[in-house]
Design brief:
With 139 residues, the chain is an alpha+beta fold. The chain has one domain. The protein is 15% helix and 41% strand. It has two helices and nine strands, in the order ββαβββββββα. The strands form two sheets. A six-stranded mixed β-sheet has the order 4-8-9-7-6-5. It has a three-stranded antiparallel β-sheet with strand order 1-2-3, with helices on one face. β8 and β9 form a beta hairpin. It is globular.
Length: 139
């Protein structure tokens, strides 16, 4: 099962060997300075947005890989009936959101608290994730 750690000045989502194979990539690394907001979603499905692009997504079972939406790309490693740590990122990195399922609410709050303390540019204006921007309508 994936887990979140901070190493030097980076946030690392360590994937198990089978998650790496499913996602078709290695561990995900982003700079701590790119972390915008960290939240915990008790409902696992709220961590997913956009459409599945690469990796494996089995509805109701698991979703591991990248997802595309109008604001960019997210990386998700989500399992049902588990809380999800959502790490919103500033637009300077390839992903806009990292979502990682953890074992229980205690582990989710501990991981979120660690990231909130370690990241230098956390946006504390609201404790909730921000909605995706709505694309402009064309005539």
């Amino acid at each position: 099962m994936a887990h979140i750690v901070t190493k030097d000045d980076q946030v690392v989502v360590h994937l198990a060997w089978w998650e790496k194979a499913a996602a078709r990539r290695g561990d995900v690394r982003v700079p701590l300075a790119a972390v915008r907001r960290v939240t915990v979603e008790p409902d696992w499905w709220r961590g997913l947005r956009g459409t599945h692009q690469s990796g494996i997504c089995i509805p109701g079972a698991l979703c591991i890989g990248t997802r595309r939406h109008q604001a960019g790309m997210d990386f998700a490693t989500v399992r049902p009936r588990r809380p999800v740590v959502c790490i919103e990122l500033w637009p300077s990195v390839p992903f806009r959101l990292l979502t990682v399922s953890v074992r229980d609410n205690g582990e989710a709050e501990a991981a979120a608290g660690l990231l909130r303390r370690a990241a230098p540019s956390i946006d504390t204006s609201t404790p909730w994730r921000q909605p995706l921007p709505v694309p402009e309508e064309s005539e």
